[in-house]
Design brief:
Length: 169
């Protein structure tokens, strides 16, 4: 099960990376189109869709890598039992909020598909397509929260601390 979950997080991160490459392509195409005097319709919208997709799809992998912002100053002031209680409490709240985000993101994409909702820009993209990356990213993020909660309750959670806070500038 652990390998499956890690593969899920890594796959979502790979999709986020592809979105970033696509975003780069949209920006380059936009610059080239302006320099050569032609209009590539919908480039700004597609760049926005790809940016949102990259952000949502990268959430779970970033969380599991210990790169999300954590307030450890408060946690380090407590003993191990109180710290663990706060960790469990925060993971329960985060799991509930993550599940709500996933549910409503999936619902939004589904309703956009049902109502044939399209972009108001000149690209007229069916909105369920870009919303799908948000729904998938939010769902994988919720799974990551529940995964961390289960590991914490079992006493198997390994808190990964980012090396970023060790840098002193």
């Amino acid at each position: 099960m652990r390998r499956l979950l890690n593969a899920l997080y890594d796959s979502a991160a790979a999709l986020a990376a592809l979105c970033m490459v696509g975003l780069l392509g949209m920006v380059v195409l936009s610059v080239i189109s302006r320099q050569l005097g032609f209009n590539a319709k919908g480039i700004d919208s597609y760049a926005g869709y790809l940016m949102a997709g990259a952000g949502f799809l990268a959430l779970a992998h970033t969380f599991k890598s210990g790169e999300h912002i954590r307030v450890t100053l408060l946690l380090n002031a407590f003993g191990s039992r109180t710290r663990r209680a706060f960790e469990i409490w925060s993971l329960v709240v985060a799991s509930l909020l993550g599940l709500l985000l996933a549910f409503y993101s999936c619902r939004l994409a589904w309703q956009s598909l049902q109502f044939n909702d399209i972009s108001t820009g000149n690209d007229a993209t069916p909105l369920w397509i870009p919303q799908l990356s948000m729904a998938i990213g939010a769902t994988v993020f919720a799974i990551a929260f529940v995964d961390e909660l289960v590991q914490e309750l079992r006493g198997q959670r390994k808190t990964i601390i980012s090396g970023e806070m060790l840098r002193n500038e």
